[in-house]
């Protein structure tokens, strides 16, 4: 870890129930398919910024009897991940609080070091990748996946969703983070010293009635109640009426019969 670490990065989403519920819908299959070919029984894996741990527990099942460690800066979300492991009776996983910039593991510990939707929230993603590389075994992999906010597209055109995008970009950048992370992953991996970098991309799509309802409800709530709302107000980027209007716009989009929302994700497998 270098001398000036951004220990106090502000996490744009926060851990409101509406946020963690959305993250808990993720699985290894729907969010980390690009990693699956690299998982073998007996592999050791570190999942950095694991959130509520649904992807982490899936990994544990796939590498069993190998050991999986989930790490997150938030002790609250770590407690939720621990409860999930107990509920699912996954025994080869542990969850610990920690910081991606200062991983409390010796050099060359893990076969796979993974971070899903984490780098976009950091003020120094390159330093985070260097630290992930440090704890990966030689010949092991560092695997990262991040959305690209300006790459998102939707239909129909709802002005409040344009407002939402503009507000999200302003808040994330005010926090020193990079919301258009997906397109930068190759560059960040190269800057972190990786020479063997394999890029891919994959989408999340919300275009069935059920998917639209889910996505509209998630963001309709987050805009009003999560850290996104608190930061929008605190930074003076929006007022309560603006947030109410944007939330209503999400619900209007969710009640369309033909709505579409596409989230592109950049992915990188980097050899340690
Ligand atoms: C968008 S969530 C992703 C959670 C999980 N990987 C998933 O995809 O469901 C980002 C997570 O990174 C964590 N995080 C943010 N900054 C971190 C840091 N410096 N060190 C470790 N975790 C961090 C947050 O607490 C949050 O749980």
How would you sum up this structure, described in words?
- With 272 residues, the protein is an alpha/beta fold.
- The protein has a single domain, classed as Vaccinia Virus protein VP39 (Rossmann fold).
- Helices cover 40% and strands 21% of the residues.
- It is built from 10 helices and 8 strands.
- The protein has helices spanning 17-23, 28-31, 54-63, 75-88, 125-135, 159-174, 185-191, 209-225, 227-234, 240-254; strands at 45-48, 68-72, 93-97, 110-116, 136-147, 153-155, 197-206, 260-271.
- Strands 1, 2, 3, 4, 5, 6, 7 and 8 form an 8-stranded mixed beta sheet that branches.
- Helix 1 (17-23) packs antiparallel against helix 8 (209-225), helix 8 (209-225) crosses helix 9 (227-234) and helix 8 (209-225) packs antiparallel against helix 10 (240-254).
- It is globular.
- Bound molecules: S-adenosylmethionine.
- The site of S-adenosylmethionine (SAM) has 22 residues, from loops.
Helix content: 40-55%
The class by helix and strand makeup works out as: alpha/beta
Q: In terms of per-residue confidence, which ranges show pLDDT below 50 for 5 or more consecutive residues?
A: none
What is the rounded Rg?
18 Å
In CATH terms, what is the architecture? 3-Layer(aba) Sandwich
Tally of structural domains: 1
Residue fraction in strands: 15-25%
Q: What characteristic shape results from the CA principal axes?
A: globular
The largest pleated sheet is described as: 8 strands, mixed
First-last Cα distance? 17 Å
In N-to-C order, the SSE pattern is HHEHEHEEHEEHHEHHHE
User: Mean pLDDT, nearest integer?
Assistant: 96
Count of alpha and pi helical runs: 10
Q: Would you state the CATH class? A: Alpha Beta
The count of strands amounts to: 8
List ligands, each type once: S-adenosylmethionine
CATH topology: Rossmann fold
Q: What would CATH call the homologous superfamily?
A: Vaccinia Virus protein VP39
């Amino acid at each position: 870890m270098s001398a000036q670490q951004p220990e106090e990065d502000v996490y744009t989403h926060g851990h409101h129930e509406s946020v963690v519920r959305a993250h808990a819908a993720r699985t290894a299959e729907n969010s980390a398919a690009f990693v699956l070919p690299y998982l073998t029984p007996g592999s050791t894996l570190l999942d950095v910024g694991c959130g509520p741990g649904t992807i982490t527990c899936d990994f544990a099942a796939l590498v069993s009897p190998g050991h999986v460690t989930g790490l997150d800066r938030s002790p609250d979300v770590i407690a939720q991940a621990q409860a999930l492991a107990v509920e699912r009776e996954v025994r080869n996983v542990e969850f610990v609080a920690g910081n991606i910039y200062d991983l409390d593991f010796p050099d060359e510990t893990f076969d796979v070091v993974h971070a899903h939707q984490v780098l976009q929230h950091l003020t120094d993603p390159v330093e985070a990748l260097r630290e992930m590389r440090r704890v990966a075994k030689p010949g092991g992999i560092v695997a990262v996946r991040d959305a690209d906010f300006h790459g998102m597209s939707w239909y129909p055109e709802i002005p409040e969703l344009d407002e939402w995008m503009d507000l999200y970009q302003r808040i994330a950048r005010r926090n020193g983070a990079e919301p258009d992370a997906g397109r930068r992953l190759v560059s960040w991996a190269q800057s972190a010293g990786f020479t063997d970098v394999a890029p891919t991309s994959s989408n999340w799509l919300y275009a069935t009635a059920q998917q639209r309802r889910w996505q509209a409800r998630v963001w309709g709530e987050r805009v009003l109640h999560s850290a996104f709302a608190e930061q929008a107000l605190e930074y003076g980027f929006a007022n309560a009426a603006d947030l109410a209007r944007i939330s209503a716009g999400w619900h209007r989009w969710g009640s369309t019969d033909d709505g579409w929302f596409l989230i592109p994700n950049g992915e990188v497998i980097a050899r340690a």
